[in-house]
Amino acid sequence: MKNVKLFTLAAMALILLASCSSVRVVSDYDQQADFNTYRSYAFYKTGIDQAQISDLDKKRILRAIENELGSRGFVKSENPDVLISIFTKERERVDVYSNNFGWGYGGFYNPWVWGPGWGWGWGGSNVSTSTEGSLYIDVIDAHKKELVWQGRGVGTLNNTKNIEKKEERIREFVSQILEEYPPNIAVASN
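Above: the chain sequence. Below: its structure as tokens.
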């Protein structure tokens, strides 16, 4: 029984750690857009200027986008096929963990004996807060001026005092979001 509790605690800790570090990504796109024709890009300054983050973080995000797109063969251009814009949101996330387990009256097997169970004992509640951020990356057809693809990454923003870790986290966000671009569109055969 003790092994089961230890295993459960270890599993819960791993899930918690994994959920804190991962970036949850979703994307959407215009099915009528021909993504095979998009080879060059430029940043959409008007949209980027509206993002409510520091100019330093904007630079970090844009550098990460340049590196990611460049590694896939896209080139930055004065006459681009697509415009890239970003948008950010953040919110404070509060998690309450209750760990009222231990020794107490009313064990698992018999309510009339002392033993392992849920009841009196050590434990309590822990409260943790973190900042959860969303980064949106928009791809706009430069000629039609229409949004053709949007990716969003949501995750916790941690280690903000350590610049290297902050840049690494931003690169992780951008990389995982752009992993979905361009979309894998299956060509239907007649």
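Confidence is low (pLDDT under 50) at residues 4-20, 106-115.
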